[in-house]
Amino acid sequence: MWKISAKELEKLRDFLDIRGKKMLFYHRDCDGICSAAMWLRFFSDFEARPREGPRMDSGFVRHVIDQDPDLLVFLDLPIDQEWKRIRKMLDSLPDVRILIIDHHIVERDLNSGRILHINPKFKNDVYLPAAFLVYRILEQLGEDVGNMDWISALGIAGDYGFEDCRDFLDKVGIKNLDMGVGLVSAAMSLKGLKGADKVLKIMLASDGYKEFLRTKTLGLWKKYVDKEFRDVVSDFKKEREEHKDANLVIYIIKSRLNFVSVVATHFSEKLPDKVILIGKKGKYGWKLSVRNQSGKVNVGDLVKKCVKGIGSGGGHKKAAGGIVKDWEKFKRRLLAELEA
Predict the structure, then answer these.
(1) Which among 15, 66, 76, 142 could bridge 32 via Cys, Cβ 3.0 to 4.6 Å?
(2) pLDDT in tens, 116-157
(3) Does pTM top 0.85 for this prediction?
(4) Domain 6-179, second-level architecture
(5) Residues 17-57: pLDDT tens digits?
(6) What is the distance between the alpha carbons of residues 202 and 199, in angstroms, rounded to a whole number?
């Protein structure tokens, strides 16, 4: 059973004893929302905000510094990719402490006197979503997490953490996790960060999984999103770009909804041996998701390599994402790497 060390647990307790302003940033996907929901059920004195990903622009860094927090917590966000920005925060906020609970491919170990960086990949090549890690950490802190196992299971299912969390999921015994994942996904696709915040509030107020599934607002959102999604699937079949030598399928989304990750996951399941690249042009550049469901290509490492100098990104062995300024350059790099 995974758990943090006694030394890490002691340091975590010290961090949680800090008084003053506390800020929580969480990834706006199912795993990140579930992680935040469990955390806030016990530590409600945090100001919580969803994030699209680990990327930190200068405006975000200035905002955090202006808030002058005493404790910063990052859940399901590989902010070690932004270690230079973290260093600036530490230099500008001499009293701040930072807790990172993450499970993505590690770029840099940020552990120091003022940072506690928890990631199971420091020791083993396992895939344990953040919702599982937070649940286990709360257990070690002595909190009564028995009534929150459904939240952890939902986060695990949303991040496809079935293989390495099978014992836990079997113990929880929920058979229809895909229904909950669908509700969360619809909220994110339709409402973006506001949708993530809404789901978090609903999750915090729900007395169990069945009550969460009965939420009328989420159900209505899902009906609307499902119709739009069917149109995107139909368009994919007609407009996708195939590169057989690279075993790559590319599709650019035209829908206004935030479907990049959802569409990438859907077609990676349909075409597990293919590398799937889904892109959508936005206000700040091209958002992209890359998948290879078979795991034969480590897309986390691949994306990290291909975004250098034009954006940011990374993720896991089977699933990765990012944002780039130059779509064509990213595509050329990806093709070159796969063909090689």
Answers:
(1) 76
(2) 999 999 999 999 999 999 999 999 999 999 899 999 999 999
(3) yes
(4) Alpha-Beta Complex (3.90)
(5) 999 999 999 999 999 999 999 999 999 999 999 999 898 99
(6) 5
Q: How far apart are alpha carbons 276 and 289 in whole angstroms?
A: 8
CA distance 133 to 120: 9
H helix intervals, the chain: 6-16, 30-42, 58-67, 83-92, 130-140, 149-158, 166-172, 177-205, 209-213, 216-239, 260-270, 299-306, 327-339
Residues composing the chain: 340
Give the tens place of pLDDT for each residue, 269-295.
999 999 999 999 988 899 999 999 999
Identify the CA nearest to 337 among candidates 262, 260, 277, 264: 277
Cα atoms found within 13 Å of the Cα of residue 161, Cβ hemisphere only? 27
**What is the rounded CA–CA span in Å between residue 160 and residue 250?**
22
Side chain identity at 293, as an amino acid letter? Answer: Q
Annotated domain spans of the chain? 6-179, 240-339
CATH 3.10.310.40 correct for 240-339: yes
Task: Write down the residue that tokens 């609307």 correspond to.
Answer: 224
Identical fold, 6-179 and 240-339: no
Tokens of 122: 């420091």
DSSP letter at 17?
A: T
> Rounded to the nearest 5°, which phi and psi values hold at 322?
180, -175
